[in-house]
Amino acid sequence: MDKNVYVIDGDAAIRDGLSTLGELLGVEVHCYSSAEEFLNQAGIPQELPGTDACIICAQELNGMNGLSLFKKLQQDELSLPFALVTSSRSALIRTRARRAGVDQLVKKPQADKALIEFIEQTTGATQGSPHRQEH
């Protein structure tokens, strides 16, 4: 089974950066510009692999936000490791994310190291061949 990272972020530059990061770690990266696009195209929950995959999602999205997506996936009984990336300094979002059970809360802009560790821990990724799919 391939190692998969699902990136949901409205900013194309962020998606590109996370794709490059994933490629360096040898994981297949699937990019989506919104939570709705992810839900419509990723085949939730049947088609997502379980053990060698994770989701990296921005909190600040047009339409459904990242925390709402996490809660929707929980309702659908999809339990992939989930990193919520936010530029917000609000204690409220941190509290809500922890209470909801988000696996990793990462603050922008110093997210690279935390996301590398998250991808490695959740997918068993190591340096390898690049894979990227833009949706």
**How do the SSEs run, as a string of H and E?**
EHEHEHEHEHE
Beta fraction: 15-25%
Query: How many helices in DSSP terms?
Result: 5
Give the tally of structural domains: 1
Bin the helical content.
25-40%
Instruction: Report the principal-axis shape.
Output: globular
Radius of gyration: 13 Å
Give the termini separation: 20 Å
Oligomeric form: single chain
CATH superfamily: Response regulator
Average pLDDT reading: 82
Q: In the CATH hierarchy, what is the class?
A: Alpha Beta
What name is given to the CATH topology?
Rossmann fold
Helix-and-strand structural type = alpha/beta
Largest sheet: 6 strands, parallel
What is the CATH architecture descriptor? 3-Layer(aba) Sandwich
Strand order of the largest sheet: 5-4-3-1-2-6
- pLDDT under 50 segments (min length 5)? 128-133
Topology, number of strands = 6
Describe the structure.
It is a single chain. By secondary structure, this protein is an alpha/beta fold. The chain has a single domain, classed as Response regulator (Rossmann fold, 3-Layer(aba) Sandwich), CATH 3.40.50.2300. The protein is built from 5 helices and 6 strands; from the N terminus they run E-H-E-H-E-H-E-H-E-H-E. It has a 6-stranded parallel beta sheet with strand order 5-4-3-1-2-6, sandwiched between helices. Helix 3 links the parallel strand 3 and strand 4. The radius of gyration is 13 Å and the shape is globular. The two termini are 20 Å apart. The C terminus is likely disordered.
